[in-house]
Fold:
Amino acid sequence: MPRKRHPIQRYSQTDLQVARNHVAEAKRRIAGQRALMIKLAADGHKLDEAKRLLDVMLKLLTQMEKHRAEIEADLAGRGAIEAPGAEGQKRGSRRSGRVPGRG
Structure:
């Protein structure tokens, strides 16, 4: 959980861009992990460790998204951006941790 900032400390546009970059990179890595899992499954490998890693990656992404939203809300509250989610990203998630086609 992100630590609470002191009321005098404020997030900056730089903080928001860093948070957005972290979310985007995490999504790229998750996509790579999923692709690797499909290949491993096709080659007959067990996926236990790969599934555990994907689960951790998804949990971390959720935390990154919450932190990004916290920054967006702070900036929006000060009129520094339009509104939380102003970058046009959809809220909610279709992440399940399942390997596509594997039930």
Summary: The mean pLDDT is 83.
